[in-house]
Protein 1
Amino acid sequence: MNKSGKEKFLYRRSKNSQVKIQRGLNQENFLTNIALKSIFLKNFHQLHNAKFVPFAGYEMPINYKNGIINEHLRVRNQAGIFDVSHMGQILIPLTQDNIKSLEKFIPLNINNISSNKCHYSFILNSNGGILDDIMLSKITYIKNEYIYIVYNSSRKSVLEEIFKKTVRNYEIIENRCLIAIQGPESFASLKEILNLSQNMNFLNIYVIQYNVSDIIISRSGYTGEDGFELSIINKHAEEFLTKLLQKNIILCGLGCRDSLRVEAGLSLYGNEINENISPIQAGLSWAIDKTRLIDNSLNCSSILTEQLNSPKSIKKIGLIPVNKTMLRANMPLCNEAKKEIGYITSGCYSPILKCSIGIGYINKISNMSEVIFVKVRDKFEELKIEKIPFIKKNYKKGDVND
């Protein structure tokens, strides 16, 4: 996207190309030439036969002894546990000065959003590009009101520098684990441990008492299933996970978390979204409070308004190969004339559909009735365009369109 706000289509080409794509999950998040950090419960995961990989600067479990496919199916049919403690968490005092600062780059009306409700949103640059996607909530913690934000581990240094320059008296949370319990049986398992209310709906968030301390718990997640994310004090986390494992829930790694995400058609930073793509280009305009577009305090309101009122130049689509081709991020998409018209952002094997699936961008001017191909080395494999999500989402009341 250029500074005028006009959309510029980005897709994968060789190093000598004039057009480039910012690399995503399958490249930069797995770089190994940096010193890796360990999550607090690394030893616990080692005792449970975790296989570790470098991810966004951390050593993270990619799967356990059951394997990625079994973990994936367990989440879809029962429940699984994910340790996502590599993600960033921050508490910002709910003051008008802090709200004013945050609203310069977050397209929400923070004063008007409900307390105890999670909101999917973005940190935007001055061109409308996504510096990160976030979950933002207003909560009461130790009798004070805060803005609680969860953000991506790969964007910690970028966002924390922004917070340092713009908000006051904030606390970057480093003494808590972030645990996700996902799947249709997640509520039943947690209810016995935490005495949860049946009335806790999708995207509700509360601070509840646990073990002479507290847990920040939301009914949310990134798998397309009903589930919960819990921010729990480090010293209580292992005991809590041990109790969950006794409920016949299994540990799951990043491998199935990604395949669950792709089946649900959810965007991942570095793949479907990056600082060169706006929420509108990414098909995420539903997450923008449109009243902020007439408010010049949002740093990119005029650019986003222009994009909303103009024909889109790119379109996000779902893809399934006609044959048994495995779809991977950054594979080029071509039309019948074998001309590149887009690229794959995410690809994986779907244990539910029992085939490879992918998400990608194509030029909006492309003929949607035209046959699309993926270029695999020197071959062109035919694809079918599918609606996103690939599977029905299973949230508890309410939904999020992606």
Note: The longest helix spans residues 234-245.
Protein 2
Amino acid sequence: MAELTFNFYRRNYIEGLFLSSGVLKNPDYTCEQMLEALRILREEYRFAGYIHAKIIPGADSQLIARIGALADRISVNIELPSQNSLRLLAPDKSKHAILGPMGYIHSHIKESSADRKRYRHGPKFAPAGQSTQMIIGATTDTDFQILNLTESLYKKYKLKRVFFSAYMPVAENTLLPAMGTKPQLLREHRLYQADWLLRFYGFTARELLDEQHQSFNPYLDPKCHWALNHMELFPVDVNRAAYNDLLRVPGIGVTSVKRIITARRTTTLNFDALRKLGVVLKRAQYFITCGGKTADGMIITRDAVLRALLSEKAWAMYNERFPLHPEAEQLSLFDEPSSCQEDVQKCLTGQI
């Protein structure tokens, strides 16, 4: 395996190695085989590429330490989001067997980082950190449970990433979804979007989901859904809003916020300028103003914005599942002509 990896690396076929294994005999024996492969790569072949090694739950801590000294990143897969799910589908695994190694790895990464600050050539231990993965859709665990667990892992063990994998049925089992059940790829995608919001946008799990709403909206990404449920916080003026407030605007990412903060020091931004800065106005225009002005022709209500953000097909499905009621609007001094849904769409997008 080491020889094959090195030959691929030398020919520029690969940039690194992800090393994982099923359990052979027992966790310690399996990790010993993995360790030997890594030793050959690093010491005999002088392999300088990236290595991500998956630790087998239950392996001896000394083996974990030696693997961490050779790999750039290591991971202990949590596999299932709750103790009940583990007990049901993987009774040979326990919460302690998974979280114990995570804690050990976290403490060693901290020690290694501190040592390298004091001693330039101090020994490395998993310098790219640790990660984990969990399977989505094999059990009844909700998005709310999964996201809260994800947040807890980031806080307690300082994980670099939590990966999600939609369950794909490969065999009949009464404890698992039936064969032919489609993998929950959209749900996986929503969890990755929410994970991004936790790591880079300052959101908390309970801001995105709660006990009353334990699943993500299939029609809207989590950021848009949150914004629509907090219309009292919008619109924000891009020329005055704080960094954290801009981060919560749909269509404005971390890079765009930094560009906005820099650009507005020397000029007053308008919608054309925002487009050039990378802001996705298709979503952002309903939640921002420029110098106190909204985009031309807009009457902003929650239902109208929701309608504009969804495609025709998604809107029909959403409205069938969650029938909308007309919202109260501020009285106008002028009579407004009746308009069809298409007219509302054109007004909201400025394409009159």
Note: The chain has two domains: 2-208, 222-329+336-349.
Protein 3
Amino acid sequence: MDLSKIGFGENPDKVKAVIEIPYGSNIKYEIEKESGAVVVDRVMHSAMYYPANYGFVNNTLSQDGDPADVLVLTEYPMQAGSVVNCRLVGVLIMEDESGIDEKLLAVPVSKVDPTFDEIQDIDDLPKHTLAKIKNFFETYKMLEKGKWVKVK
């Protein structure tokens, strides 16, 4: 996959998310920029799994120097390496051992999956869904020496 050919999206609230980690996975994958290969980065040290499809928005830049991270909320896992048209609904601000780290929250556009059409912003998400996502990020690094995360 040539990441340079994947655009940002239609407008500021619609983006193309490149999925690296499927919902329900306990393996952290990363897409290698040069080859486009999906590479196993590591198996999570904790007995947890990703609460949403996890990836990035190409042609963006976060404070950590990487493309913006995005969680795509669905009821099913999406294949690592797939690109999905999404609508942004919010952002979680976190801090970890490396500094500030934002996680965009998105849902598939209606054409992809109309299940989330009523979700217009973060306040429309079920409180339990948001609590699970926050809990995941606050605890998934607990068994990794020298690593931590705080959701703000």
Note: The longest helix spans residues 127-139.
